[in-house]
Structure formats: structure tokens, C-alpha cells
User: What shape does this take?
Amino acid sequence: MRTLTKKNLLILGSILLTFALVQVLVLVGILDSFYEITIATICINIILAVSLNLVTGFTGQFSLGHAGFMSIGAYVCAIISMRIGTVGGFLLGLLAGALAATVVGILIGIPTLRLKGDYLAIATLGMAEIIRVVFLNLEITNGAAGLNGIPRYANWLWLYFFTVMAIVIINNFLKSSPGRACIAIREDEIAAESMGINTTKYKVIAFAVGAFFAGLAGGLYASYFYFLKPDLFGFMKSVDILVIVVLGGLGSLTGSVIAAILLGLITTFLQSFTAVRMIVYAVLLVVIMIFRPQGLMGSKEINDLLKFRFGKKEEKIE
Amino acid sequence: MLEINNLNVHYGVIHALKDITLKVNEGEIVTLIGANGAGKSTTLRTISGLIKATSGGILLEGRDISILSAPQRVELGISQVPEGRRVFPDMSVYENLELGAFLRKNKGDIKKDIDSVFEQFPILGERRKQMAGTLSGGEQQMLAIGRGLMSKPRILLLDEPSMGLAPLLVREIFSIIQDINRTGTTILLVEQNASMALSIAQRAYVLETGSIVLSGTGEELVKSSDIQKAYLGGE
Assistant: This one.
């Protein structure tokens, strides 16, 4: 395995360059704290969208419960970092939150992933509601009043780090053997089963990985916005994430990233027109869906587009 | 090699397979013919483990495999080419074949076997990077068969390989099935196209509403007047 190929160096370079660019813009003062919040929201939404895309776009399992996993990560991380008020506590909370979401994902996934399509969507929707109601009634989460004063350790650096990590890990997962199995299940479940793929097992794995990163995003959210209440993780939050995934393209990580950035920017720029904001947002979604029903990227990744452009050159190398 | 004893399958209250008993010897082509809904596909899917039997035994070389999961059965050498081809449409020809070898570990061997599928089906080799969904019906059937071979089966279960194909292509597919059989793979073939199936099979079973009503060598059944009337369009 060559790890330092030209392509990997290019990717690493652009990751660092993006980071440096934003960092410089923040330091120079072009991006004020208002835009910083936008960037943080975008990062969290990217993690949520790529993880939901793994479940819905790549494995073909229609889930409406992503906000539920996010809330588990958020509350676990908040509670732990409020007890241990250090960066270590924050990181521990992030990990614990993500793992707690994973465990719940597995427990819920095993019975529900036997369901298909609409039925699965309803089941996951119900699951997210149950999680929300539980947080609403627990003492440790302070019920409907929510948690206030969560130590704020998540900053742009951490957010960016975890966003890149989520994309890289999910991208590598998709190229691995379990990842191929997940895509095969989306393509044709019966054929996948005939190939000897244990479909339930791989659906649960996809669900668990998706839940892990949703939990991670929740933890980052809790720490960055230092305030939590169960209402933040209602049905509409799951729909928001699904909108990003569908808009970017089911089965395209690049699409999820682009859509998360695009929608984040649109929301920010529409902030000054409160009255028409939701209307413009909705109309934009409708227009994009009419002209690009497969989503902005379809199921293509940025690599496919680059390959298309330099296609001839690559053929010769092979 | 494969033995099925008194197999019963229910879909809810519907008794789909009633006491099916059949046998496939090593190196044979055995065909299972019958009308729509007779239970042919159900039999194949029960053998490959996609459907659970209510009772009865499935023996592979004397070993009862009826309690094993579908993946375990694939590992033991049972491979099914599903009805209606069911290739993975948004994956390339090459990726489809790779997935056929999902349970195998040795990458070098897998690559060698993909090359030999391309040797057998040159058209697939030419289109190795093409998305499987854009192939013609015949090419998709070849891909489905090639993919089925990628798990190195000892017995290949073919479910209606002629479905939806032009007569000329049906001939080609059947001659491919004979080629595969000659290289040592045992074949259990389910078909509605009875005359084609009987022409290449050593032995045949006739299914009617979930029961085996007739069995014999391919030639015997072709000559049988019942079969002539029911399945071959004879008077």
C-alpha cells in the first residue's frame, strides 16, 4: 500500500490549506464571531450529513431518527464535561457520547433493520421521539429547561479536525469490504444475500457507524453552543439533516459536504430578511429538486469529476 | 451431491412446497420445470438459505445444511444466480464480480478468477468499467452467472436464466451453462422454457403446485405425452 501517493498528498494539502485559509480570515477579522457560528454549524451539519448518508444514501436504509443519536451524544458529552471541566473531560465526553449513541444504534438497529422503506422510516422516527421524551423527563438532563453552562471547549480547530476525521473514516469505510457490502445491499438486497452477504449484520454496522458520528456531532454541538434542551432534537432536526443529504445527493459524500456548506451560507445570508427567510429557503429547495432531482452531485464524488476531466491521462498510466 | 428429503415450506398459511424430495449427483445438470407458481424458485431459495424450510432435510454431500445461514451455505459451495438477473446496477461489471467473491479472502485468486470470467465472457471484459445497469439483458445474465461463479461454487443454482431474453440469446446462455458444467460445476437449473432445459439436462423433475409429479432423464420427459401437452406445446 502506498500511502503517500500524489493523490493523498493533494488531499492532505487541500485539507491544511482550507484550515489555514479560514484561520487567517478569522485572525485578520474578516470572519467575525457571527460567521464563526455559521462555520461551526456547517461543520456539525457536515458530520451529521455524511453519517446519515452512509445509512440512507449508501446502505439504502431510510432513517428519520438521526437527531435522536445526535441528542444522545450531546447530553452524554455535556454531562461528562460539566463534571470534568477540562479539555480531557470534553474529549472523554465526546467519545463516551459517540459510543453511547453507537450502542443505542445497535440495540435499535437489530430489530428495526428487518423493516424496509417507509416502515423503517416510521420506526426510526418513533425511536428518536422516545429518546427525546426520555431526555425531557430525566433529572440529570434537567428536563425541558435543559442544560446550561456546558464548558465550551469545542472551537473551530476541534470542529474542523473532527469533520475531516468523519469524512475520511466514512470514506475509507465505504471502500472497505463491509462498505462494499453496504452498497450492495442498497443496490439489490436479494442479490447481496445470494452472494453470501449477511444483510442484517451489515445494515446494523452501517447504522452503528452512522450513530457514532451523529453522537460525535451532538457532543460538538453541546460543547460549542453550551446550551441543550430536548426540543433541539425533534423531528425537524432529523428532517434538516435528511434535506442536506438528499440535496447533496444520496450516495455522495462530496454532495453532503457541498449541500451542508451551501445551506449553511444561505441560512446565514437570509438571516437579515427574517420575514421571507423560510419562504426563500423552501423555494430554493423546491427549485433545486426540480432541476436536480438526483441531488447536486447525484452519486458522484469529487474524484469522479476529476477523473472525468483527466480521464485520458489516467487510462494511460494504468 | 445434493439431496433434498421431504422438504416443506410455508408462506404464512400457504403450503408452498409439499414433501419435495430430489437429488442432484456430482457433475450433473438437473432441471426443475413447471408452471408459474409451482414452487420452482422457492425450492432454489430454500436450498440457498434465503427462505427457511418448515421441515425436511437439505444434505450437501451427506451433511445437513438446513440449519446453516445463507452465507455459510455460500461458503460450502452453493451459489445461486437469482431470478431476473439482479446485477448491482450502479456498480461496474468488475465490482459486481468482486462482490460475487465477497466471502473469499485471497485477493490474488479473486483477480485470477475475474480474468477467467472475462475469458469466458469476452463482452464483459470489454465492459469491465461499465455500470452493470447499462448492459443489455443478455449481458446482464452473463454477468449474473459470472458473479455466481466467483464464489467458486461446487453446485450452481440457476433461476430462470432465459427469462426475458431473445431466443438467440437463450441458446447462447444455455450453451454457456453446458460449458460451465463441463468444467466440473454441478448445476441445478430452474426453467419455464421446458424444451430448452430438457435438451441440456441429464435428469429432470416436474413441479406442480408445490409437489413433484414426475421425474426422469431429460430424454424420457421430452418423450412423455403429459409433458408434451403441459409444457412443450405438443398435442
Remarks:
- The radius of gyration of chain B is 17 Å.
